[in-house]
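Recall from the previous chapter that SMILES is a line notation for molecules. Here it describes potassium ion.
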Amino acid sequence: MILELDCGNSFIKWRVIDGAQAVTVIGGVVGSDSELVSALLAMPAPSLTHCRLVSVRSDDETLALTRRLDELFGIESVCARPALEMAGVRNGYVEYQRLGLDRWLAVLGAFHLAKKPCLVLDLGTAVTSDLVMADGEHLGGFICPGMPLMRNQLRTHTRRIRYDDEAASRALDEMAPGRTTVEAVERGCLLMLRGFVLAQMELAKEYLGDNFEVFLTGGDALLVRDVLPGARVLPDLVFVGLAIACPLD
Ligand SMILES: Nc1ncnc2c1ncn2[C@@H]1O[C@H](COP(=O)(O)OP(=O)(O)O)[C@@H](O)[C@H]1O
Ligand SMILES: CC(C)(COP(=O)(O)O)[C@@H](O)C(=O)NCCC(=O)O
Ligand SMILES: [K+]
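With both inputs in hand, we obtain:
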């Protein structure tokens, strides 16, 4: 059994796959290392043999987690590393090491699945967009704040915008002009996000032509699915790239 981890800025996405069949046995989303450990300890006897992971956290944080996994389960972790070129994709960053590893893996996964030009949108703490041409050349991309960052900026940098997360989730049931603060902020931020992804579609047409595939991933992917009807929504896209970047055989 292989443990796979995608350590983002807010959450750790984890899953255990049966190495032989590459079938997901169990998985989830947790908020901390300790929650991950609890979830893993609660699993019904899954003998973990390997771990592979991608992290956009600090090296110290990542090391602390891999040490704990080694202590508890006796498994060594293989971490995805930056690369200039891999699986037919050429990293477009001026300094390839600086491209977020979650972005790199999502791009590798998308190009592997599409085998044609791709626009990759990842909606997490931050929202990222990456463009890849037909020949695998990664053109670079864009980063903007995601929903959690937008709402938290408003809540912490104004005096009178205050509401809790539970109210926030209800506010998006409709998109009419907000009649409460929570509705006004949540719907306003969501419109910004939708505007961003639509702008990316226009850019992608300009740079990639008309025949490109759109991939949508990250915890908030579903919030913009309506405005991107042709997009492939793949919550596990980073894991597709992780398997390419860290083969275990
Ligand atoms: N099961 C879930 N647990 C946590 N967050 C979730 C879940 N489903 C959707 N989300 C949303 O996903 C967002 C975080 O996305 P994610 O891709 O995990 O971010 P990151 O990779 O930056 O940690 C949050 O804004 C939250 O609204
Ligand atoms: C842009 C990101 C913060 C996105 O992180 P996430 O929202 O997935 O937690 C991450 O990919 C990152 O730290 N990138 C390094 C900077 C860059 O890609 O240019
Ligand atoms: K992201």
